[in-house]
C-alpha cells in the first residue's frame, strides 16, 4: 500500500475528468491483456525462465508480475510442474527481498503442489529452501527439522544425487546448535558424496573446520581452515573467506596467541564485502584488542559494532519499506490480472454492461484510494513518532553502554594501581629482609672471629642457632604468601611449564621476578653472590634457555 500513496501524492492536481479518462484507459488495457493467452507449456516455461532471469537481476517487481501470471496460466490448465516452478520462484523473490514471511507462504504452497502431483526431487528442493529460510532467521530448531526431512527423504530416493548436500546443511546447523558429534557424523557422510562438486566440497570442509573448533581440536581446525583460504578467492567466495578468517582468529584467541588473532581479524575486515558479516568482524577485532590490553582500540571497534548494527537495521528498515511497496504493486498487479480476465469473459457476452461495471469499479477504487491516502498519512505519522521514540531509547542505551565501559576501564586502572602499590611494598619488604640479613650476618661473622667468643662454646652455639634461624626464617613464608596474592598463579604457571624445578629454584626465580640483584638475593638466601650466580646458571639450564637468552627476561613472559 506504500507505493499507491507515493504515486498519488505526486498527482494532487488531477481533475475528476482526468481520473475518469485514466480509469477508462486502464480498463481497456485490462480487456486487451486478456487476448494474449499462452497456448502451450513451452510458452509458459519461457515466461517462468524470464521471471527467474529478472529475479537474479534484482528486478523483483517485473519478475513477480511474470511469475504470478505464469502461476495463473498453469492453474487454469492444470500444469502442475509449471505451477510449482512459478510458485517456488515467487517465494525465492520474496526471500531475496528479505521478506521471509511472504517467502515461507509461497514455499509451503509449492510444497503442497510437490507432494500431491510431482516427484521427490521437487519436494526436496522446497524442504531445503524452507530450511535455509529458517536458518537465515536464526530459528535453528526449525531449520534443522526441514533439513532433516530433506536429508531423510533424499536417502530413500535412488534418483537423488544431492544427499551429501543435505547432509552438509544438517552439519552446518548442528554446529550452530553446538551439537558437535551430530555435525561430525553428517560431515563424514557427506565428504565422499561431494568429491565431484568442488563448491559443495568447500562448504563441507568449512563445516569440518568449524566442527573441530567446537570440539576444541584447535590445531586440526587451524590446519583445515588455512588449507581452505587459497581456494576462497574472488567476490563469489567473499563471505566464505570472511567466515574462515574469523574462525582462524577465534582459534588463535583460544590458544592465547592474541597477535595472530588480531592479524586474522584484520584480514577478515579487509575481505568483508557485506554489512551482514561486518558486525562479527568488528566484534573479533574488539576482543583481540582487549586481549592485548589495547583498550582504546577495543572501545573504537565496540563502537563500530554498534554502528554496523544500526546501519544494518536502517538498511533492513529501508528494505522492508521497499518490499511493502513492491508487495502492493504485485498485489495490485494480481488484482488487475484477475479483474481483466473476469471483465474479458463478461465483455464477450455483455460488453456495454461490463463497461459500466468497470467504471463503477474504478470509481469505487478511487474512493478507496482516497481513504487509503488519509489512513496512510496517519500511519506514517504514527510510524515517525515510533521511530523517534525508538531512536531516543537507542541513544540512551548507547550512553549507558559507554558509561559502563568507562566505569570498567576506570576499575581496571584502579586495580592496576593497587597491584603496582602491592608490588612496591613487596619489593621494599624483600630489600628490608636483605639488609637485615646482611647486618645480622656481618655481626655473626664478627663475633665468630673474636677470640673471646671462640673461647665460649655456649656463645658459639647460640651464634650458629642464629645463622640457622636466618635460613629458616618464618617471615620468608609470609613473604611468599604475599607474593602469590600480588602475582596470583605465577608459581603455578611456572611449575606447569617446568615441573622439574625445586622449591628453592621457584623462590630464587620469584626474587628475580621482583628485579632484586645478586647481592640482595644472596643475602636473603644466606648464600654468597658467587653461589647466587652459579644457581642462576643452573636454573637457566633447567629451563633449557639457549645462548644469549636472559633468565630475567624469560620469566617476565610467564
UniProtKB/TrEMBL annotation:
SUPFAM superfamilies xref list: C-terminal effector domain of the bipartite response regulators (SSF46894), TPR-like (SSF48452)
UniProt subcellular location: Cytoplasm
Keyword terms of this UniProt record: Coiled coil, Cytoplasm, Membrane, Repeat, TPR repeat, Transmembrane, Transmembrane helix
GO annotation, biological process: regulation of DNA-templated transcription
SMART domains: TPR
Membrane-spanning residues: 350-369
GO CC list: cytoplasm
Gene3D superfamilies reported for this sequence: Tetratricopeptide repeat domain
Record has Cell membrane as a keyword: no
Segments forming a coiled coil: 373-402
UniProt record similarity statement: Belongs to the Rap family.
Full protein name: Uncharacterized protein
Amino acid at each position: 500500500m506504500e507505493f499507491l500513496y507515493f504515486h498519488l501524492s505526486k498527482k494532487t492536481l488531477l481533475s475528476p475528468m482526468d481520473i475518469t479518462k485514466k480509469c477508462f484507459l486502464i480498463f481497456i488495457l485490462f480487456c486487451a491483456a486478456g487476448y494474449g493467452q499462452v497456448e502451450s507449456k513451452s510458452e509458459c516455461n519461457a515466461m517462468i525462465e524470464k521471471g527467474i532471469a529478472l529475479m537474479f537481476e534484482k528486478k523483483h517487481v517485473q519478475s513477480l508480475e511474470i511469475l504470478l501470471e505464469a502461476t495463473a496460466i498453469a492453474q487454469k490448465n492444470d500444469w502442475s510442474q509449471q505451477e510449482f516452478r512459478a510458485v517456488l520462484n515467487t517465494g525465492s523473490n520474496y526471500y531475496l527481498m528479505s521478506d521471509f514471511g511472504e517467502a515461507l507462504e509461497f514455499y509451503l504452497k509449492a510444497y503442497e503442489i510437490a507432494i500431491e502431483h510431482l516427484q521427490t526431487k521437487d519436494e526436496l528442493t522446497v524442504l531445503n529452501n524452507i530450511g535455509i529460510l529458517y536458518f537465515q532467521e536464526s530459528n535453528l530448531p526449525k531449520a534443522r527439522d526441514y533439513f532433516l526431512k530433506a536429508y531423510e527423504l533424499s536417502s530413500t530416493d535412488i534418483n537423488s544425487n544431492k544427499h551429501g548436500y543435505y547432509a552438509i546443511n544438517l552439519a552446518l546447523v548442528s554446529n550452530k546448535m553446538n551439537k558437535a558429534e551430530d555435525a561430525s557424523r553428517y560431515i563424514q557422510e557427506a565428504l565422499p558424496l561431494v568429491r565431484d562438486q568442488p563448491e559443495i566440497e568447500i562448504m563441507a570442509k568449512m563445516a569440518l573446520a568449524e566442527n573441530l573448533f567446537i570440539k576444541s581440536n584447535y590445531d586440526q581446525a587451524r590446519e583445515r581452515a588455512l588449507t581452505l583460504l587459497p581456494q576462497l578467492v574472488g567476490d563469489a567466495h567473499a563471505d566464505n573467506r570472511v567466515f574462515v578468517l574469523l574462525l582462524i582468529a577465534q582459534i588463535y584467541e583460544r590458544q592465547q596467541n592474541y597477535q595472530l588473532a588480531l592479524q586474522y581479524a584484520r584480514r577478515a575486515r579487509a575481505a568483508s564485502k557485506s554489512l551482514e558479516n561486518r558486525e562479527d568482524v568488528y566484534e573479533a577485532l574488539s576482543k583481540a584488542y582487549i586481549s592485548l590490553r589495547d583498550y582504546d582500540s577495543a572501545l573504537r571497534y565496540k563502537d563500530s559494532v554498534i554502528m554496523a548494527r544500526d546501519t544494518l537495521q536502517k538498511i533492513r528498515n529501508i528494505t522492508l519499506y521497499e518490499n511493502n511497496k513492491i508487495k502492493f504493486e504485485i498485489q495490485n498487479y494480481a488484482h488487475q490480472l484477475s479483474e481483466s480476465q473476469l471483465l474479458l469473459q463478461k465483455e464477450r457476452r455483455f460488453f456495454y454492461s461490463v463497461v459500466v461495471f468497470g467504471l463503477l469499479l474504478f470509481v469505487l477504487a478511487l474512493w478507496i484510494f482516497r481513504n487509503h491516502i488519509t489512513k496512510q498519512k496517519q500511519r506514517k505519522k504514527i510510524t515517525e513518532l515510533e521511530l523517534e521514540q525508538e531512536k531516543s531509547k537507542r541513544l540512551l542505551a548507547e550512553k549507558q553502554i559507554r558509561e559502563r565501559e568507562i566505569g570498567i576501564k576506570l576499575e581496571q586502572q584502579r586495580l592496576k594501581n593497587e597491584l603496582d602499590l602491592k608490588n612496591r611494598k613487596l619489593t621494599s619488604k624483600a630489600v628490608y629482609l636483605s639488609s637485615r640479613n646482611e647486618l645480622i650476618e656481618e655481626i655473626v661473622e664478627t663475633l665468630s672471629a673474636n677470640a673471646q667468643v671462640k673461647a665460649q662454646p655456649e656463645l658459639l652455639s647460640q651464634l650458629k642457632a642464629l645463622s640457622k634461624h636466618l635460613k629458616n626464617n618464618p617471615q620468608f613464608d609470609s613473604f611468599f604468601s604475599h607474593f602469590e596474592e600480588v602475582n596470583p598463579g605465577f608459581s603455578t604457571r611456572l611449575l606447569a611449564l617446568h615441573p622439574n624445578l625445586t622449591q628453592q629454584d621457584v623462590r630464587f626465580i620469584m626474587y628475580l621476578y621482583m628485579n632484586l640483584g645478586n647481592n640482595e638475593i644472596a643475602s636473603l638466601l644466606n648464600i654468597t653472590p658467587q653461589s647466587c650466580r652459579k644457581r642462576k646458571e643452573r636454573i637457566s639450564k633447567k629451563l633449557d634457555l639457549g645462548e644469549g637468552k636472559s633468565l630475567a627476561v624469560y620469566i617476565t613472559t610467564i
